[in-house]
Amino acid sequence: MLKARNVFMLQRRWKGGKKRWNALQFKKTNCDRALESFDDFYGSVYGTRWKNMRVALLTEHKYIAMVNNFGDTEQTCSMLEMDGAINVKSLINVARERLDGKTDNSVSTKLPSSNNVDSKLDALLKKQQEREMASIYPSASEDGMPQQLNYNSSEKNQSTQEELEPQDFKQSLTKALEEDVHLDEKRLVDPQFGTGGLYEYMPAHSIKGMEDWVAESEHYKYYKTNDAFPLRIELEDSFQFPEHLALYTYEMGNCSNFKAPKKCLTGVLSHFLMDGASTLPPLFLQIQPGDRVLDACAAPGGIAREQAAARHARVPVRL
Q1: Residue 274 phi, psi dihedral angles, 5° rounding
Q2: 78, 50: one domain
Q3: Number of domains in the chain
Q4: Are 35 and 82 members of one domain?
Q5: Residue whose C-alpha is closest to residue 50's, from 37, 63, 61
Q6: Within a domain: residue 172?
Q7: Residue 77 neighbours by CB under 8 Å, 6+ apart
Q8: What does the alpha-carbon distance between residue 285 and residue 89 come to, in Å, rounded to a whole number?
Q9: What does the alpha-carbon distance between residue 291 and residue 126 come to, in Å, rounded to a whole number?
């Protein structure tokens, strides 16, 4: 057996220089460039709302558990609630109660406030009328300022005579043509001297490059949506959540995963996991029993299941 008495450390030479950690830290990727362009463009369009929209786009997808009505619904609902999930229907009921309380308070406080506003407007109108009368009649008589304007009959007769006098339209037209029509001789080009200038070569005195480049977001500074197309947004409070639909999700900011669905006694899965955004369109459609819906989505039928569970409607047709 040979024993190793001395150990030598030899450094390996690399073909290319190894990049340092500080160079990799400040290196811009394509994702960073895309985010910068989005901040420049959409920041000028949406203003202060773009920050929240940017955070929502960069966060993970939040999933919602839809309970299967053909399985053990009570057991699955209790299991999801024990894990910390919240029923969406309860959140909607709480928001509806708050809106009803706000509307009652607003109706009670609106009646006295409207009377005060009307009285203030009447006082302002009276003051404005007094100022106008004082400006028209600065030196009022002892009886006071007149309440109405009286017109003399002589002025009326003069105006009626001027209207009844015949006018010679032909003569006025010829006068207008003679007085107003004048050719601008300064803008005329003499063909003997001016045609040669059209064929002369004019070299470029400057070249426009990236220093004169204008970003696309700067064009939206001159775009005003309120002046061009005013839109009236009316909020609808009449929203009916389906009774037979049970959706469970976690609180705001919690994107934790749900447990895997289990098989019930009937042989079907206990719940289905769906993207939270995909559950909104079927709810906003307000499908009534007996309606037929065409589901043209490429998903594996999650929206169709939600529609069928919401209103017990006919099974939607998928493409």
Answers
A1: -135, 155
A2: no
A3: 2
A4: no
A5: 37
A6: no
A7: 67, 87, 246, 248
A8: 17
A9: 60
DSSP bridge partners of 274: 64
**Three-state secondary structure call for residue 205:** coil
Tell me how far apart the alpha carbons of residues 60 and 254 are, in angstroms, rounded to a whole number. Answer: 10
67 and 96 together in one domain: yes
- Tell me, yes or no, whether 289 and 307 share the same domain: yes
> 90: domain range?
63-106+238-318
The verdict on 279 and 296 lying in the same domain is yes
pLDDT score for 319? 36
Q: Are residues 243 and 304 in the same domain?
A: yes
Q: C-alpha distances in angstroms, 170 versus 162, 166, 174, 186, 281?
A: 19, 12, 6, 31, 70
Is 0.85 surpassed by the pTM of this model?
Answer: no
> For residue range 241-283, what is the model confidence (pLDDT) as tens digits?
888 888 999 988 788 888 888 888 888 888 888 888 888 888 8
Residues 6 or more apart in contact with residue 276 via CB below 8 angstroms = 61, 62, 63, 64, 249
